[in-house]
Amino acid sequence: MVFLRKVKTASGATAVQIAERKNRRDVVLEHLGSAHTEAELAALMSAGRDRINAGQEVLDLGFSRDPQSAVVHSKRSRQLLETLQAAWTALGFDVIEDEAFFQLVAARLIEPTSMSDSGRVLAEVGMDPVHRSTMKRCLARISEREYRDQIATKCFDHAVNRGDVSLVLYDVTTLYFEAEYEDELRKVGFSKERRVDPQIVVGLLVDREGFPLEIGCFEGNHAETRTIVPIIKQFQARHGLADMVVVADAGMLSTANLTALDEAGLKFIVGSRQVKAPGDLANHFHWNGNAFEDGQLIDTITPRHGNTKTETKRRRREPVWEPEEHSGHWRAVWAFSKKRATRDGHTLTAQENRARAVIDGDAAVKSTRFVKTTAAGRTLDAASLERARGLVGLKGYVTNIPATIMSPAEVLSSYHDLWHVEQSFRMSKTDLQARPMFHRQRDAIEAHLTIVFTALAIARYMQNKTGFSIRRIIRTLRPLQDVTISLAGQQITAKPELTDDARHVLDALTH
Fold this sequence. Notes:
single chain; alpha+beta; 8-stranded mixed β-sheet; 17 helices
C-alpha cells in the first residue's frame, strides 16, 4: 500500500515522502521535498498524489529509489493581488497608468515599510517589483503629473455614486519627524502626542462613512483652526460644489472659521466647548436650575463674538435661531447624557484629587486644574470646581442650519458621525503607518501623503464591502499562495484551500 507520509524535520519543516507499508514498517520510496509554509505543503501533497496516481499504471509504481527533492519554482498570493487590482480598477484609479505608483500603494497596504524595502514585500506575494530607482522617480511624477488631483476626483465620483456628499467630516492630526532641525515645512508646533520634534499638520476630509475625499499638508506650527477653510475651498473648487454641510470638532471652533464657512454659503456643525454652556443656557439655568433629563436637547442661540450680550431670561421659552433676527448669533444645540455625566464626574474627581495632592505637596507642581495660587500659597479653587460639576453631562453643537431644515436630534446625529474621520486617521497612522519617516524634502513628503491617501481609499472601499479591517483582510489573503514546484522535470501548481474568512472576503469584493 503506497501512501503520502509527512514527517517533521529537525529544522521545523515538514518533509513529504512517498512511502510503502512493509513488514509493519514504513519504507520511503521517494522524498518529494520539505515544506516551510502551508502553501508549500499543499503543493508537495498535490504533487505526491499526482505521482502516486500516475504510478498506478505500472507494476513497480515507477518510483525512483534515488532521493529527488521538489524545487519551489514560484509562490504567489493570487487572491490578494487580484483583490487589490480589482479595488484599484473599481475606484477608477487605473486612470493613472503608472505601475510603480500602483506597486507603492499595494506595498503600503500589504506591509507598510520604507520604499527600499517595498521590493521585498512585493516579491514575497509574487509580484515582480520595479527597480528602486523607478520607485524614486515615481515620487517625482506624483507631483509633476498631479496624481493626487486625479485620485481625489475619482474618490469624489465613488462617493457620489455610492450615496451623496451633502455632508462631509473634517479633522486634523500631526505627523512628527525624528529630525534635529526645522525647515520650511517641518516645524515644531502643538503636538497631540506632546512631542517636541519637528512635525507637519495634516487635514483630512471624508464623507459620512469615512471614505477619503481630500487631504492637505501644512507647516508644523500652523494653527489647526486655520486648516479647515483652505481644505474646504480646495474641495469646493475641484468639484464645483456650492451647498454642503461641514462637520468638525471643537478644535475648529473659531469666529474666523465659522464666518468664512458661512460667507462661502456652506452649512456647518461644529462642537462647542463646555465652558460656553453657562452663557448659552443662562435661560435654562435661570428657570430650571441645573436639572436635566437623560437625552434632553435644548435648542438655543450662542453669540458669534465673545463680547456679544445675550438676554434671554425674560422668557422661559428658548429663542429659536433665525439668521436675520439673530445676526450676531449662531444656533446652538446642547445635549445632556447621564452616561457622559458619570464619565465627566469621574474625570473631575480625579482632577480634584490631583489638585489636592499638589496643594498638600504630595505631587510635583504642574499646570493643574482647580489649583489657585496666591501670595499666601496654593488653595483649591472650589468655585471653579463647583461650576464644572454643574456642567457635567453637557455637550454643545454650534451650527448655522435653521431648525426648520435640521432638527436638534439630526444635528446631534450628524456630529456623532465624526468618529468615521477619526477612524480613518487611526487607519492611516497605524495600519498604513502614514508618518513619512523616510522622507525629508517637501515634494517627497507630499508624494508620500498621496500614496497614503490612495491606500486609505482602497482600504476604506474594501472594509466597507467586507466589514473586515484592512489588516484582517491582508492577514486572511496574504498566506493563501499558489505554489508552483518543479519535480521530475514537471511543474506542478497547487492552489490553497480557502478559509471561511477568505471566502467571505472574496465573495464580498466580487459581488
